[in-house]
Design a protein that fits this description.
Number of helices: 8
Structural class: alpha/beta
Largest sheet: 7 strands, mixed
CATH superfamily: Vaccinia Virus protein VP39
Shape: globular
Distance between the termini: 35 Å
Order of helices and strands: HHHEHEHEEHEHHEE
Bound molecules: S-adenosylmethionine
CATH topology: Rossmann fold
Number of domains: 1
Strand order of the largest sheet: 3-2-1-4-5-7-6
Strand content: 15-25%
Number of strands: 7
Radius of gyration: 16 Å
CATH class: Alpha Beta
CATH architecture: 3-Layer(aba) Sandwich
Length: 214
Amino acid sequence: MALTAKEIVDLYRRRAERYDLTANLYYLIGFREQAYRKRAIDSLGLQPGDTVVEIGCGTGLNFKLLQRAVGPTGRVIGVDMTDAMLAEAKERVRRKGWANVELVRTDAAAYVFPDQVNGVLSTFALTLVPEFDDVIRRGVVVLAPGGRFVILDFKMPDRAPMWLVRFAVLTMQPFGVTLDLANRHPWESLGIYAEGFAMQELYWGFSYLAIGSM
Ligand SMILES: C[S@@+](CC[C@H](N)C(=O)[O-])C[C@H]1O[C@@H](n2cnc3c(N)ncnc32)[C@H](O)[C@@H]1O
C-alpha cells in the first residue's frame, strides 16, 4: 500500500541528513543520477532571469544546475512537504550564498503555483504524490508561452516480469516506493495537459524523462 503523507514525511525526516549520500548509492547499480538530472534541467530550456518551480525539491540536489540556468536575476522556488529535507536545502542555499532561492513547505497537492512560470521540474518525487494528476494540470496551466514541465522519475518497464518489478521496488523501498506506485503514470497526465510532449526511457525503462511544453 502507498504510504500516507504523514508516513512519507516521517520517512524523509529520518532520511534527510544522509539523503544526498544514500541517493548517490544508486550509482553502484549503474544509475547515472547526476547525468539524468542534468538532462532534465537542460530540457527545461531555461534562460537567465526565468522563474522555475521544483516540486518535491528535497535537499536541493538540483539547485546548483537550476541556479546556473536562471542566473542571479532568475528565481528558483523549491516546494516540499518534509521540514527536515527543506532544512537541508536551506543549509545548502545558505552555504552557497544563493539569494534567489525560495523554499516553500507544503504538500504539492495544496501548492498554489505563481503565474507565468518558465519551468516546472520534479525529480523522483511526483510518483509519491497521490494527486499528481492535479498538480501537473495546475503546473501546466501557469506555464508562460514556451515554458516547460519536466519530470524525471522511476517507473516500471513495460512487460517486466513480476520478480523483477518486486526486486526494483525493494531497492527503492527506502525512499517510500511501494508496488502499487507502478500504477501511477505522471507522464500520461503530462501528455494530456501539455501542448507538446516528448518522453524518453532511461535505465532499461526503470526511469524516464518526460517533457511537456506550452
Ligand atoms: C526521493 S525525494 C526526491 C528529492 C529531490 N527531488 C531529488 O531529486 O533528490 C522525494 C521528495 O518528495 C517529497 N514529497 C513527497 N511527497 C510530497 C508531496 N505530496 N508534496 C511535497 N513534497 C513531497 C519528499 O518530502 C521528498 O523530499
